[in-house]
Design brief:
There is one protein chain. This protein is mostly helical and 375 residues long. The longest helix is centred in the first third of the chain and has 29 residues. It starts with a helix and ends in a 5-residue tail after the last helix. The N terminus is likely disordered.
Length: 375
């Protein structure tokens, strides 16, 4: 009974919560946290414009380069499996330091590679780091930001990912693949240093029973004059609720009452991965060359639309909602795949093959413009 009364008091305090200030520490902390997302984007787009140069410099076959490109995915799977457990046990800051160590080591191994072994090892290590980053960064941002700006601050994760893609797409036309690898590691160095100057997540501190530290961190993030009591109570209530549900295991998901939600969730994830956009974004330059379209122009155009289309996605998701946006983007992706199929299908047909370059460009442009709306 006493516990229920305390929870009711906490809920009453939460209802009286005032709008928190956006403090310089909050902005700086968010910048440091999302800087690793740039590396995520750089890893996604790295193979798009470096395929021919890496293959010629290290004398690789197509199969060897394909393995190199896919190793980041395998590494990402391993990193993602351990990301939640690592963040819960060691904290978000420590997990990001570990992710930075993997990414920096991986990018340096790629930049200094003299053979396929170092190249593959570097790509695999970057993948593990990216797998950790993909979970920790959005969760960390959500846990340090107040509700009224949480969506905008969390979006910065996607924005920095797109910036990473744009940079490697654009500068891949002018810089060597080794220099691009160095560029990919720079944000990790920034984060390694910056993490010393930002606080740990208040929610994680509350989970560990460090309530005093939790309140001190909240006060720093919200400003000296802000009343943190309602928010601190809300965090404690949430932590207690999560502890009560901690005995729920993965088998609970397969109960009949969750079948509909589980089917939708898994279906969306599978369709997102199987719609072909990963291959298009990773090997865009090669597709342009095969179609006879100027690869440099194509990659520069793609680099220029990455950031604007992510901003457009933020606006549209608020106006349209997620379901209409998902359906529209899925239809557009379907048309883009058909366009690419027609482009390469008629490539060697006399008289009609002339449409291949422009159809290829349109298909890649549409696909690249829409696939981030699936996330």
């Amino acid at each position: 009974m006493e516990g229920e009364k305390n929870m009711e008091k906490g809920l009453l305090l939460v209802k009286k919560e005032e709008t928190a200030n956006t403090t310089p520490l909050l902005i700086f902390s968010t910048f440091i946290i999302v800087s690793a997302s740039f590396t995520f984007g750089a890893a996604i787009g790295y193979t798009a414009d470096t395929m021919s140069s890496i293959m010629s410099d290290l004398d690789l076959s197509l199969a060897q380069f394909s393995l190199f490109g896919s190793l980041s995915t395998f590494g990402g799977m391993i990193g993602a499996i351990f990301s939640a457990k690592a963040a819960a046990a060691f904290g978000h800051k420590m997990t990001l330091w570990v992710a930075d160590l993997f990414c920096i080591t991986g990018w340096l191994a790629i930049a200094l590679a003299k053979n396929i072994i170092w190249l593959d090892m570097g790509r695999f290590l970057v993948g593990i780091g990216v797998g950790l980053i993909s979970y920790v960064v959005p969760v960390y941002i959500a846990e340090i930001t107040p509700k009224h700006v949480r969506g905008a601050f969390t979006f910065s994760n996607q924005l920095l990912q797109n910036c990473g893609v744009a940079v490697v797409y654009y500068f891949g036309n002018f810089l060597s693949w080794r220099t691009l690898a160095i560029i990919g590691s720079i944000p990790c160095w920034i984060q390694v240093i910056g993490l010393f100057f930002i606080p740990e997540s208040p929610r994680w501190l509350a989970k560990k029973g460090r309530d005093k530290e939790c309140e001190e961190v909240l006060q720093k993030l919200r400003g000296r004059r802000y009343d943190i009591v309602p928010e601190a109570c809300e965090i404690k209530i949430s932590v207690e609720a999560s502890k009560q549900n901690s005995n729920i295991n993965i088998r609970s998901l397969f109960k009949k009452r969750y079948a509909h939600q589980l089917t939708i969730g898994i279906g969306l994830m599978l369709l997102q991965q199987l719609c072909g956009t990963a291959g298009i974004s990773s090997y865009g330059s090669t597709l342009f060359k095969l179609a006879g379209f100027p690869a440099r122009i194509g990659m520069m155009v793609l680099s220029l639309i990455v950031v604007p289309k992510s901003l457009m996605g933020l606006i549209l998701v608020d106006r349209w909602g997620r379901r209409p946006l998902l359906m529209t983007s899925a239809f557009g992706l379907c048309l883009s795949c058909i366009t690419l199929a027609v482009a390469f299908g008629v490539k060697d047909v006399p008289g009609i093959g002339k449409i291949t370059p422009i159809f290829c460009f349109i298909g890649i442009l549409v696909s690249f413009s829409l696939f981030h709306f699936q996330y």
